[in-house]
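Preliminary data (for renewal application), magnesium ion complex.
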Amino acid sequence: MTKWVYNFGDGSAEGEASMKNLLGGKGANLAEMSNLGLPVPPGFTITTEVCTSYYDNDNTYPADLADQVAASIKVIEETVGAKFGDEENPLLVSVRSGARVSMPGMMDTVLNLGLNDVTVKALAKQSGDERFAYDSYRRFIQMYSDVVLGVDHYLFEELLEIHKEENGFTLDTELEAEDWKELSAAFKAKAEDELGRPFPQDVNEQLWGAIDAVFGSWMIERAFVYRRLHNIPHTWGTAVNVQSMVFGNMGDDCATGVAFTRDPSTGENTYYGEYLINAQGEDVVAGIRTPQNLTKASRIAAGSDMPSMEESMPEVYGQLADVFQKLEAHYRDMQDIEFTVQKQKLWILQTRSGKRTAPAALKIAVEMVHDDIISKDEALLRVDPGALDQLLHPTLDPDAARDVLTKGLPASPGAASGKVVFTADEAEILSKNGEDVILVRIETSPEDIHGMHAARGILTSRGGMTSHAAVVARGMGRPCVSGAGSLHINMAEQTITVDGRVINNHDIITIDGGNGEVMAGKVATIKPELGGHFGELMAWADDKRELKVRTNAETPLDASAAREFGAEGIGLCRTEHMFFDATRIINVRQMIMSSDEEGRRAALDKLLPDQRSDFVELFTIMKGLPVTVRLLDPPLHEFLPHKEEDFVDVANAMGVDMAFLKRRAEELHEFNPMLGHRGCRLGISFPEIYEMQARAIIEAALEVSKTLGEAVIPEIMVPLVGSAKELEILKELIIKTADEIIEASGEKLEYMVGTMIELPRAALQAGEIANHAEFFSFGTNDLTQTTYGISRDDSARFLDDYLKADIYDQDPFVSLDQDGVGELVKIGVERGRNTRNDLKVGICGEHGGDPASVEFCHRNGLDYVSCSPYRVPIARLAAAQAVLRK
Ligand code: ADP
Ligand code: MG
Ligand code: MG
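Predicted structure:
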C-alpha cells in the first residue's frame, strides 16, 4: 500500500525537511517545524505522487486516497478536539498548495473550510463572538467561490463596498456581526446566482472540491508558463496541505503577519516584517489595510506612528524572535516566515528560505561564514552566479524619481543616461567630446559597433534578447534595452515618438537594461562596490575552481575592465572590430576591392601599423597573461561601402573608377555569407591577409616584451577550420612569418598556433586537426548555428514557438545544448587529446558566461572558459560551484 498522506503537528510529524520532493516545500517544512516542537497547527500533506498519479490516470485519484485522508482528518480532530462538520464543535481547516519550489500561479489558499450555515452558528456560540464567526464565513464563501468554483472575487468585493457605502462605513473594522451575517447571506446568494446551483454546504464536498482545485491548478496555463520560464519540470507535481485553522481575526489580541529573519533587500542582520491586528492571512498581502511594522526600529525608520508588534504585543513578539533564531540556526539560512497570533498564542504557519536581492544574497552568505554558521563552500553555493550581474553594473538610484516613457526588453543589464543620438558616427563624435550618449536605432548592425562602444547605452525599437544589439551590448557590458516596440523612431527627422510625446535628437533619456524601462531625463545612478563582500566571495571561488576564466575582448577599455573583474587572459580577441574604425575602414575597403595580390598587399601594408599598435596596447594591459587572437573571420562584404560617398572615397583612394568598384562589390555578394567565404577560407584565398595579421601580432608581442620586460603569450587562432589540411597550410604560413620576425629580432618569444572548433566537421575531425593545433577553442556560437542549422540572427522569429511547444527547453544560443552541441564538444576534446595529450582546450562562445554551460565545461575537462568582461565574475563563481556540485 502506498502512503499518500503524511500527518504533522503537535510536536511531531511523519515527514521532515528532506522530503521536499514528496511533500512539497511547504509540507516538508511544516513537518520539520513540528518535529522541532514549534507551535504548528496540526494537519496533513497529500503527496506530490498523488498529483502525478492523478494526471497519469485521467484525473482520478488512487483508490485508497479517500480512506487515508479520512483517517488523517480523524487524527486532526483528536488532536484539536473538534470534529469536521460538527454541529456544535466544528473543525475548520485551510487547504494550501505547495510544490517543491514556491510557485506563484498555483492555486491560492482557501481558509475557514468547513463552515456552512450550521457550523457558522456553532463557531459563533463556541467563540462567543458572532462577528468573528460571520466574518470568517463570508471570507470562506468568497475565497472558495473564487478559487475553487471560479466566481470572480471582485463580485463579492463589490457587494461589500455597496454595503459599506449604504451604511456609511469606511473601514472593514467598523462592520458589526449583523453586517457580516447579512453579507455572508448575500455572498452565498451571489455565488448561487453565478453558478446556477447552491453554494456547497457539505463539508466533505468542500474539502474535495478544494483538493481537486489544487491538483487542477498544476496544469493551468499560467502555472505552465511559470514552470517553463523557470525550468521546472511538469512532472514534479504539487502537494496539498490540509491544516486546522488558527484565527488571527478573533479580536484585538489576535494578529497575522509575515517576517524575514534578515532584511531581504539589503541583507542586513535585523528582523524585517509586517503584521496586522485582528486579521486573517490574506489581508496582509491583499493591501486592504496597511500593515504595521514588526519591530520598533523599523517603525521609527519608516516614520510610522502605528505601534509595532514589538510594542503592542511584547510577549508574543519575544516568542516570535525566539522562533526566528531557532529557525535560522536550524536551516542555517535566512527564513521567510508566516505566523498568526490567536488570543495571544503564537502559531507558525510557514517557513522557507527567503528570496533576496543579489546584494542581500552576497552579504548574508559572507556574514554567515564570518559567524561560523555556514562553510565557505556553502556560501559559494548560496549565491546565484547569474544574479552577480546586478552587482557589477551601475544601477539606478532606487530613491530617484522616474518618468517612464515605455518598456522594452531587458537586453543587457545596467543603467545609463545620456543624450539621444541616432547614428553610430554621431555617438562617436559626441563621446569623444566627453558627452554621454544613448545610441538609439531601430536595430543595430556590425557597422554600428564603434557607436555602440562609444555610447553609454543602446536602445532599439526592434529585435529580441539575442538580436545583434543585445548580444553585442552584453559583450561590451553596455546597458541595452531592445525591442521597445512602442517607440516610433524617425531616422530622417531624428525624433522618437512614444505615446504622443516627442523626444528630439540630443534630448536626455535614461535606460535601465535590468528591467527594460526607458525614461525621459537623467536618473541618478549608483556605482557598484567590487571589494568588500564581493571580493571576499570571489577569492573563495578562485581557491575552489579548476577552470581558468578568460575574457572576450579587443578594446583596451574592455580588456582592462575584464582584468579588474579577474580575467586570466583573453580567450577571444576579434581582429575585425579593429577594422571598423573610421580611419581604417578605407584601407580595409581598398584591400577588399583590389582584384589582385599586389593591390591587397599595398592596402595591408597601410593596415599593419594600426593593427600592430592595437595589439601593443592590448598586450600591455594583458601583460603576463595569454591572449588568443583570432585571425580575420567575417565575410569580406561586411566591410563594403554602403553609401555613395563611401564608394567615392574608396575610388579616389584606389585611383579606380566607380563602375569597377560597383562590379567588385557585386562579385563579393553572397547568398548565405554565414556559410560562405569567411574564416580560414579567406586565409586560403588571400594568405597575405593572415600573413599581415600574424606579423602584427608577433611584432607587437616582441615590442611589449622589450619595453615591459614581460610579454604576453600570443595564441594565434585560425577560425572556421573544417579539415586538417586547411590548418596545416595556414599554420605553416603563420610559423614561417612569425619565426622569421623573431629570428630577425634576436629575441625569444613563446607563441602558439591553434584553431577554433566551430563546425561539426571540425569536432569530428578533431583527431586529425590536433596534429597541427596546439590549442582548441570551441566557438560555440557558430557551432550551435551549424549544428542546428539555425541562424542566430533569424531564430528570434520562431524560437518562441519552439520554447512554447517544449521542443527546446531553452534558447540554445544562451545556454549550451549539452545533448547535441555538447556531444560534439565532448567528441572534439576526446579526439583532440588522443592525438595531443597536452592540447589546451577552451570555449569562447557566449556560453562561456552562462553558469550551466560553465559547469558543462568543467565536467568535460576544458582548461578555460572565455566570456565577455562583465560575465567574468559570473564564470568564476559558476566554475567554483561546478567543483562543489561534482
Ligand atoms: P501562499 O503560498 O500563497 O503563501 P499559504 O498557504 O501560505 O499561501 O497561505 C497564505 C496565508 O493564509 C498564510 O500566510 C496564513 O496567514 C493563512 N493561513 C493558511 N493556513 C492557515 C491556517 N491553518 N490557519 C490560519 N491561517 C492560515
Ligand atoms: Mg505562505
Ligand atoms: Mg565563429
